[in-house]
Write a structure and sequence with these properties.
With 172 residues, the protein is mainly β. The protein is 0% helix and 41% strand. It starts with a strand and ends with a strand.
Amino acid sequence: MEYTSGHWSLDIYPGNDGTALVHNTAILVGDITLGKNVTIHPYAQLVGVITIGDNTVIGSHCNILGDVIIGANVKTQSNAFIPGGTIIGDNVFIGPSVTILNDKFPPSEGKSWMPVIIKDGATVGGGVTILPGVTVYENASIGGGSVVTKSIPQGSLAYGNPAQIKGMAERA
């Protein structure tokens, strides 16, 4: 079933109650499960086995590929790259042009893939690159433009190249 209003279409996907708003230029291929009130903006590409929780927004031009789990109330801004093996918890913010990497020795065809985990409440600023195998723990914040080479502890504020712990994250 499809409802079109302007350039937006409202499509029903598996596991969805019919409230996902998916732009008609977005590409969804594979086993895609969308929660309630998910919004997928123009030119986003979701390819693989992907689960997205309720009230999550996927920005324009995002690429989400492979086996990915994204929690509820996640905001992913434009141009983010999220590869297979990534797990994103609830209430996470992913800034524009964030790049998450999963292959330690590319191209390994999956032999050296290491998942990235971003836990509940974390904030990842724009232009951040997260290297394979990193975990960003609960309520941690990563400053824009950082290169994250090691896991970031719960509640920490980290930034720089390479990202270093600079203090505790403040919440509004």
